[in-house]
Structure formats: C-alpha cells, structure tokens
Design a protein that fits this description.
The chain has about 70 residues and is α+β, with helices and mostly antiparallel strands. It contains two helices and two strands. The chain has a domain at about 10-35. It has helices at about 25-35, 55-65, and strands spanning about 10-15, 45.
Amino acid sequence: MVEDELRGAAVLVLANKQDLPHAMTAPELAVKLGLLSIRGHNWFIQSSCATSGDGLFEGLDWVGKA
C-alpha cells in the first residue's frame, strides 16, 4: 500500500465463507492480514457468504461511504 496511486485508498476485505464452521473471524483476519499496522488508509472487514449474498451489500455500502 505504498504506491502513490493507492495513497488514501479505502480497503475492504470480504470475509467470505462465514457459513462454514471454522471460518476465521474478522479480528483473526485483521491480525493475519496485518491490517492493524496500516496507516493512512481506512479499512473494514465485512463478514460475507457469497452463496446467500449475506454481507455483500453492506460491504459495498461501506466502500461507497469511505
């Protein structure tokens, strides 16, 4: 995220497969992806399930407001 073109870009992570029993939680993903160390970017993790559509509109709504 150090490229000039990405300066100030919002970061959305869609945590898909949340319908599965061993899916990682949003806090676990934040740690694994190193999101807590990102400075200068708004980021958000949206739990989702693509087969049912759960969380997809919420994630896109966040991007629209970011």
